[in-house]
Please model this.
Amino acid sequence: MNETQLLQTQLAFDSVAADYDGPRGNNELIQRMRVTLWDTVRDTLAPGSRLLDLGCGTGLDAVHFAREGHEVVATDWSPQMVGRTRARAIAEDLQGRVDTAHLGVQQLGQLEGDASFDGIYSNFGPLNCAPDLIALSNQCARLLRPGGTLVFSVMGRICPWEVGHYGLRGRFRRAAVRAARGDTPVGMNRHVIWTRYYLPREFYRSFAGQFDLSSYRALSLFVPPPYLVDFQRRHPAWCERLGRMDDRMGGWPVLRNMGDHFLIVMRKRQAA
Model:
């Protein structure tokens, strides 16, 4: 991913920052996925941990973890998103627990504090826009304490709902977009986000040199992806049953490789 593509991606997120919490903040399917990451962080990291948020967006996750007693450094490639996070922390009187930095995932080398974080998390696919996962892995290993944890929500390569939704409408090119290799342009608000899609173990390979794979599971496999929230609202009881199937079966072999996103947990190896 080149500098032009990175800047195009930044502009796309800047363009939606002011209204990002509108439809997304009221989207039940997004919130369901968000809570899964929250629960995973709660179950894998001790209270009062120091956390690094990669791609913080408007700060919903950072403020949540600050309320839970964690200390959070929230970073994003979009300066407008960082501004939203800073304003949210101030409004919640949590600025003492939430620090912000305008840094893309490709700029973590500028972040000081070797081995100063207990955990690093990223929600809703910012790492799909990372130009170099191996470089990202090296920086995560530098910043994490031995035994520290990564919890990442990443857009997957195989989304059955997406293939069915667009395929049935004859939009075969759109249905197959996740099958593309390398940098893929995705439109948002008349701008372009440059994205790469992964299978879970394909994603993990870039981290395998310094991290052990603890677990991974599908997100929004049986439940529709967030852009189909109108379907969910028309069929809430049915989608609630599908949600229970996600909870029960999303971590099963084979099935965990599919879904709108996958949630992957990795642990830094202890120093020899």
Summary: The chain has one domain: 3-268.
